[in-house]
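Contributing new complexes? Match this layout with C2E.
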Amino acid sequence: MSAEPDGPEDRLRRFATIWSRAVFPVTSTSLTRPELEEQLLPLARRLSEALHTRTLDADEGRAVGAALVAAHCTDPEALSRTLDCVDAYLVLYCGEDGDQEELRVRAARLQHAMAAGFAQALRERTLAEQEAISAAALQAQGVVAQALHASEARFRAVFEGAAIGIGMADLDGNILQVNGALLRMFGLSEQNLRSRNVKEWTHPEDAPQTWTLYEELVRGEREHYHLEKAFYRPDGTVLWTNLTVSLLRDADGEPQYQLALMEDTTERRLLNLRLRYEATHDALTGLPNRTFFFERLEKALGAGKGQRFGLCYLDLDGFKTVNDSLGHSAGDRLLVEVADRLQACTTAPGEMVARLGGDEFVALTTGPDTEREVDELAARIMNALVAPISIDGRELTVRGSIGIVEGPAGERGPAEVLRSADITMYRAKSAGGNRFELADEEADARAITRHGLTTALPAALDRGEFFIEYQPLVHLGDGSVRGAEALVRWLHPQHGVLGPDRFIPLAEHTGLIVPLGRWVLEQSVRQAREWRERYDDAGPLRINVNLSPCQLTHPGLVQDTVDILERAGVEPDALCLEVTESALIGADDDLLKPLRRLAEMGVDIALDDFGTGYSNLANLRRLPVSILKLDRSFTQSMQQFPADPVDLKIVEGIVSLAHSLDLAVTVEGVETGAQAEQLRILGCDTAQGWYYARPGPPERLHELALVDATG
Ligand code: C2E
Ligand code: MG
Ligand code: MG
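Output block (do not edit by hand):
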């Protein structure tokens, strides 16, 4: 039978022993301590099992709480000790094989469920007790009517022995008799109490109907009423009770006495307040937490006409660095100090500050005049952060970024307001931090679509929402189509066709550019093979594909490209990769290595948007580049006639330098015949632009190339 030393059964038993030792002194049972332990053991087992079920069963916790009441552990202190015991020992003795973090969370939730079950059972038990006493009192009515000091044995026994307070008064409120429990609750002697009148016992927190119900009862218009009521004790402290008052009638049915039954709920109230406090406050800083803040914001936003709100959303700049370099405990102390300073900034009525989590705080101001107040509040907060914070002998400078949202109540919900504040805070951060910014609906809308697009990107690739358009590259000398540039588009289910400027930066930011870029390369290379197979007599058509800077540093670039070309059966010289000039400015050899490898294999590398990055022309020699793509801005300056002679000279200079370095020159953005002619005279080799064709489906190139070949 006996478990192995230190087996789970042993540890469970030890937990039950500790538990029984903790609560035994405050129970009102006739059991011995070991007998109590036997009663607690099955409860301990239930807790242990609940701790290990994947989805925590709160009913189990509530059942254990109720079982405590059944075992006569009804004193609130017994609950308090039980919770402490579960907190300190349950995971220790019953949770050695499991994720400790997870088990602690479950143990905390079990405690809440136990407290709820305990309170519920206690309330039910008291009601049952009150009912029994009322029944006994009613049975004894005849006797009570004859003699004030009722001699009916059964009534007396219940009256004196009851754990709840009982008092009797006449219809004018003069107290006639009370039991021991009631005296103990009030901390009064019987003598003191008997000279009192019920109607003296008002308290500021009396519910509005308290005294109307009383009047109705003594007039004989109601038989009983039930209330939560507070009383002052002679020492000034407050006693909270569950109060039931019943009317006692004489043999003829005439109202004669009132009987009050009261249960002391003071401790339970305190416990509830503590639980509520813990659920609504941040343990580290003591500030209200996100839950509490949401409640308050909701209330502020639901306020009536003429009421406004102002919200400051603060995020510390560079807090992660503090945490990483000085450790979490230093980080925690910094947060506590920041919390104290923020608290000092929000002292006016209608103002509050809360911690949302991590290094994010919010301050709220409400009232009719928040337009001015919220600016002042933000300025006070920035000011409060100016003085350095001293931690471990170091003086840390703290900076923060604040997003401000201000507006009339009744227009927006809390989630929307908080999101707007969050977005605005990020705007302040990306403008360099250490500042506050005011929310602006347009900026919000932009950020929200940006956010929406970013989150939709990965699924878009899986769902095949991207497609490629091709724009022909034309030889300036003979006008023949030499190839095309692949330009990616996104057919978004809501926003329609989006150009690359809308989503390429987001894809770069999230890293999706690597799989997306690979997909573009694959499609384009396959397209090139198709062209080559069908229109070989039109001269070998080539495909230009854009590469993002992130793709350049991706280790798989060379291998992926080789694989794609091989799988499609396309020669490397059919492919040209376009890299922007800015991506290569100051590039070191490591960055250039993969490009060089590709160039050695025969892939052309073009320097895209050339002329926008102010690169050192002498540098061109170092780069594994064979084509310069002159930026559209050069072409644009040739639109007016006659073209600016200086611009012409510059282009002429670039072209001759490029040619002397053995680089071909392509121009972008050719929109008119005059431009094309000018660029041809200046010596450019190929051109691209609306004059020839806008980017379009691959079939369009078939037509152009075909016309070209036959015409
Ligand atoms: P880019 O490589 O410089 O592409 C040329 C851009 O100029 C294209 O814009 C094209 O539609 C536009 N364009 C062509 N001819 C004319 C003209 O005559 N006049 C004017 N005003 N514009 C003209 P698009 O398609 O919006 O592409 C913008 C940029 O997006 C591209 O600039 C390229 O850097 C990037 N991009 C496009 N596709 C991809 C891709 O698959 N991967 C990567 N990484 N970037 C891409
Ligand atoms: Mg390009
Ligand atoms: Mg370009």
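Reviewers usually confirm one structural detail per submission. For this one: The pocket of magnesium ion (ligand 2) is lined by residues 485, 546, 578, 608 (CB under 6 Å).
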